[in-house]
TrEMBL record:
Its main location: membrane. It is a multi-pass membrane protein. This is Bile acid transporter. It comes from the Bacteria. InterPro entries: BilAc:Na_symport/Acr3 (IPR002657), Bilac:Na_transpt (IPR004710), Na+/solute_symporter_sf (IPR038770). GO terms for cellular component: membrane. The chain crosses the membrane at residues 12-31, 43-67, 79-101, 134-159, 171-189, 201-220, 232-253.
Length: 330
């Protein structure tokens, strides 16, 4: 029992300090790139990247209930505008930033993939820390993820298809394999083996955090030389993409009449992307462009740090300031 309690404590710490861990792995990828070359390889014929992403999505599935989607029926307008913001703001920003900074094709591909992927799973945790509408955040993440096999290839093609050749049908199949099937398996475990799912949820967030950190180290290590030659541009574009996503997500929530807590949730949901998925898709579908995975890897590390800072600002300053104005207990 003491060993289990210790393991749960360790896993909780990993989840809490994921942003710092991601930065450490990013630095390790830069300083000892060969140590993580196996991440870019295969295990039993399956890309290790895809296996890691499947584990992450399975973990997400075990946290969901079919009742999570009931909010669609209760608040269809707000959910619609939230998903619209998710799949408009970040792809639009990706297009604008890629052209504004005249990114080379590989980096442009990576930025666009970050923009066209669904919301990140860590957004739900950050929304909770921000005292936003967690149910709203979970619903947005779930729906944007479930429709990603259609939306991500479609939007990527609309932005890149004319200039960079790729297979949108193949991307659709990849997302179904990497995202949808593991989520369905996770939902099945939650439904038919609830005790197992409850136990797994003590550990899976930490496993997902380590998996994402290894993805970051692998991608960064594989592109080390190119990153060192253009790191300032990559970092600046990633920061702008993320921060502008927060701001525009919040603005859309306000313009469409959402509550304060929902504005907080949309802000975070739009700004925090499933950049791990973007990294995996870059590896599979743009293998000839090693740098295409770099924006996703850098975004994974950065958005967890910025998310933690944003949560602190919301919970300690903005929520208190706007409590009486919006009439909510925040």
């Amino acid at each position: 029992m003491e060993r289990m309690a210790f393991m749960k404590h360790v896993c909780a710490l990993i989840g809490k300090y994921f942003g710092i861990i991601a930065i450490i792995f990013l630095i390790l990828g830069l300083t000892t790139p060969t140590s993580f070359s196996w991440v870019m390889g295969k295990f039993l014929g399956v890309p290790v990247l895809s296996l890691f992403l499947g584990i992450i999505m399975f973990g997400m599935g075990t946290t969901l209930n079919l009742s999570d989607f009931a909010l669609i029926l209760k608040q269809p307008k707000n959910i619609f505008f939230g998903i619209l913001a998710q799949y408009f703001v970040m792809p639009f920003l990706a297009f604008v930033l890629s052209h504004a900074f005249q990114l080379e094709p590989a980096l442009a591909v990576g930025v666009v993939l970050v923009g066209t992927c669904p919301g990140g799973t860590s957004s739900n945790v950050i929304t909770f820390m921000s005292k936003g509408d967690v149910a709203f955040s979970v619903t947005m993440t779930s729906i944007s993820t479930l429709i990603s096999p259609i939306m991500t290839p479609l939007l990527t093609y609309l932005i890149l298809g004319q200039s960079i050749a790729f297979d949108p049908v193949g991307m659709f199949i990849s997302i179904v394999q990497i995202v949808i099937i593991p989520i369905i398996l996770g939902l099945a475990v939650k439904k038919f083996l609830p005790a197992l799912a409850a136990t797994a949820n003590d550990y899976l967030p930490a496993v997902s955090s380590i998996a994402i950190s290894l993805l970051i180290a692998g991608i960064i290590g594989a592109s080390r030389n190119a990153i060192l030659n253009s790191s300032a541009i990559i970092l600046l574009v990633v920061i702008l993409h993320n921060v502008l996503g927060y701001a525009l997500g919040f603005a859309i929530g306000k313009l469409t009449g959402m509550s304060w807590k929902q504005m907080v949730a949309v802000s975070i949901e739009v700004g925090m992307q499933n950049s791990g998925l973007a990294t995996g898709l870059a590896k599979v579908h743009f293998a000839s462009m090693p740098l295409a995975g770099v924006p996703g890897a850098v975004f994974s590390a950065w958005h967890n740090i910025s998310g933690a800072v944003l949560a602190y600002v919301y919970s300690n300053y903005l929520n208190k300031r706007f409590d009486s104005h919006y009439g909510e207990d925040v």
